[in-house]
Amino acid sequence: MIFNFNVSMLKLKFGKEGKMAHTIIIVDDDSFFRSLARDILEHNGFEVFLASNVDNFAHTISSLSSPPDLILFDVNLGAEISGDQLLASFKHSIVKKYPALKTKFVIISSKTDTELQEIADKCGADGYIRKSSLNIDYGGFIFASQIKSFLEK
Q1: What is the pLDDT of residues 18-49, one digit of tens each?
Q2: Domain that holds residue 118
Q3: Is the pLDDT of residue 10 over 80?
Q4: Is residue 6 part of a domain?
Q5: Structural domain tally of the chain?
Q6: How does DSSP assign 70-110, residue by residue?
Q7: Which of 10, 17, 106, 143 could form a disulfide with 133 if both were Cys (CB 3.0 to 4.6 A apart)?
Q8: 70 vs 2, 10, 32, 80, 126, CA distance in Å?
């Protein structure tokens, strides 16, 4: 399924003067995962916005005054479009309109590394993170470190 993302509704401005924290959007239909990921990232100094589906994502992205630094897309969104399809459609549309965009596009799933690498390559993601990295035994350290690594690239 091809999803045409209407980028004309976006009100993104470039320039991050005075911006204190990196902004991250998490697009995932699992409310427990969204909450846990948000808590870990906010604890590490990130500003986090959550979206549970395509409509929430469209509303969230259009409400921001500047582009997010990273968008995390769950592969299995449980919707009319998968997270990797949403990523590919959105990235294609937004990069056309804003070629200087520095936003990182990352997929997340419980799939294997091999599967995730293949999906990331196919949809144009900057990379992937396995959901197991949220391991609460380590306080989400691995997950937060992986997010920081993407932002430093």
Answers
A1: 445 899 999 999 999 999 999 999 999 999 99
A2: 22-152
A3: no
A4: no
A5: 1
A6: EEEEES---SSS-HHHHHHHHHHHHHHH-TT---EEEEEES
A7: 143
A8: 23, 16, 20, 23, 10
Give 145's contacts (C-beta < 8 A, 6+ positions apart). Answer: none
The answer to the question of residue 2 being in a domain is no
User: Is position 77 within any domain?
Assistant: yes
Pair 85, 38: CB distance under 8 Å: no
Q: What is the 3-state secondary structure (H, E, C) of 10-25?
A: CCCCCCCCCCCCCEEE
CATH number at 55 reads 3.40.50.2300
Please identify which residue in the block is written with the tokens 């005054």.
65
The structure tokens listed for 59 are 């509303």
